[in-house]
Amino acid sequence: MFTAAETLRGAARAARLTPAHEATVRATLPVIGAHINEITPVFYRRMFAAHPELLRDTFNRGNQRSGEQQKALAASVATFASMLVDPDAPDPVDMLSRIAHKHVSLGVVADQYQIVHDHLFAAIVEVLGDAVTPEVAEAWEQVYQLMAGVLVGEESALYGTAGVEPGDVFRDAVLVARRDLTDVVTEFTFEVPDAPGAFAAAQPGQYTSLGVRLGDGARQLRQYSLVNWDGRGFTVAVQRDGEVSGALLDTIAVGDRVDATLPAGDLVLGDDDTVPVVLVSSGIGSTPMTGMLAALVAGAGARDVTVIHSDRSPDSFAQGAVTVGLLDALESQGSTVRRYFNWTGRGQRVVLGTRDIPAGADWYLCGGNGFLQDVRAQLADLPELCPAGIHFELFSPNDWLTGQ
């Protein structure tokens, strides 16, 4: 439903500080960076005190308790500021695209950026005190406004592509089937009777945000990758981890309703059938890869496909049977298929250098932070693989992988 705008990179690179503000940001970036992990908890504390509805109905409380959301904001602001003052800094476009997609999947609207602004700058002053001179405040104000402007523009484009008003992404989803895939993963199939066709335009690799009402009345949201989708609805796989997953597994029965947002996400399978595809996942990260494999089979063309998956054991590989079936189908269509399954319970680890992997491939990664960091580090040490692109989805809100 939502697709990445081609103008995002241009918008990010077009963002410019005035020369005076650039000098101030360059001089103060080490200080701000050194204290950003002190600033962000203060920011969230202040914002949720003033707007408790945001923590109750929009922000994921589990990420707040673990500190993951604070780290994400810190990484985002620091990365964008670095780009503004250092032409050799990592390109923030992947980070900005991921943030924009997450925002539209939560129904974030432009007015909420002012709320963030007010409490973020109050937190900076609270932590840094007199070090925040009028000149420093003005320079960092411009950093924030530039970043917010890029994000609001991208989010507006995503809403426009979907043909909806900003924030109008929630649909009423009815559970029509559930089945256990493993002892810890259950598959849920929902239909969206009041919005037929809402998921028909989903792209392989995208996700939906599911919102459930908890016992204390809060509506908590979490993203789940789409396994299957059609004009009637969609299927996701849920592993017990956090409040939303727990509520889905323990309290949602066939016939019950939840909030579901229109598909979003920029981990989207490319359509150039001349480029090899490498799908790398761990644990429940196999879910978006299943959707991609199904799309490759439906394309009915010969492709070069490598699947690398890491799990505790064959029994814990939730999408194991369907993955093998899809790979067999691709082979029957004439595709070149490589499959590498690694079982951590047997002491096995994904070691890219020991595998037959084509050069110049598009890489798609999904899994835990440590797993993805390890894969990215291995890719950096194997220049002969020269990936055409590296695309990834994270299980947490962190964006520290961007540019590394």
TrEMBL record:
- Known catalysed reaction(s)? 2 nitric oxide + NADPH + 2 O2 = 2 nitrate + NADP(+) + H(+); 2 nitric oxide + NADH + 2 O2 = 2 nitrate + NAD(+) + H(+)
Instruction: List the Pfam families.
Output: Globin (PF00042)
UniProt cross-references to InterPro entries, sorted A to Z:
FAD-bd_FR_type (IPR017927), FNR_nucleotide-bd (IPR039261), Globin (IPR000971), Globin-like_sf (IPR009050), Globin/Proto (IPR012292), Riboflavin_synthase-like_b-brl (IPR017938)
Gene Ontology MF, one = oxygen binding
The record, for PROSITE patterns, names: FAD_FR, GLOBIN
Query: Gene3D superfamilies, alphabetically?
Result: Globins, Nucleotide-binding domain of ferredoxin-NADP reductase (FNR) module, Translation factors
Q: What protein name applies here?
A: nitric oxide dioxygenase
